[in-house]
Design goal:
This protein is of the alpha+beta class. It has one domain. About 25% of the residues lie in helices and about 25% in strands. It has five helices and ten strands; from the N terminus they run E-H-E-E-H-H-E-E-E-E-E-E-H-H-E. The strands form four sheets. It has a three-stranded antiparallel sheet with strand order 2-7-6, with no helix packed on it. A three-stranded antiparallel sheet has the order 3-5-4. A two-stranded antiparallel ribbon has the order 1-10.
């Protein structure tokens, strides 16, 4: 089994856990899924939409930044990224997902908080 690690973090990540997780990192409390302009362009192209069309449908502006919108999930009583596919339990734009998503679970907020990252992700390995 190959685990991922990142210098400065006291845990490792087992990416095979994603298959059975159900998208825990894509759902839950409301929050922001930050995207930069080059990511917006890539996602729009992936979806075969213009940047303008994509921005109108899928983005919200938060001060000087942009976030993907979320949708409320009635059964679960929580929120999901607009691109989380509930039936397949995975990201529908995975090849072009934003940096925020690609770097999970190695976020600064979890660097010194192993207990919190373990709650967020079942693929965390602490040795």
């Amino acid at each position: 089994m190959e685990y991922l690690n990142k210098e400065g973090y006291s845990y490792r990540f087992d990416p095979s856990a994603c298959a059975s997780c159900g998208g825990h990192c894509c759902t839950g409390e409301s929050g922001y899924i930050w995207v930069k302009y080059h990511e917006i362009e890539a996602i729009a192209a992936f979806l075969e939409r213009s940047v303008e069309d994509f921005a109108t449908i899928y983005l919200k502006k938060v001060k000087h930044r942009y976030s993907l919108i979320e949708r409320e999930r009635e059964v679960e009583k929580d929120f999901a990224c607009i691109f989380f596919d509930d039936s397949l339990k995975r990201c529908s734009i995975y090849p072009v997902r934003p940096l925020q998503c690609r770097t999970f679970p190695f976020w600064d907020q979890f660097k010194n908080n192993r207990e919190e990252v373990q709650k967020e992700c079942p693929g965390i390995i602490i040795e």
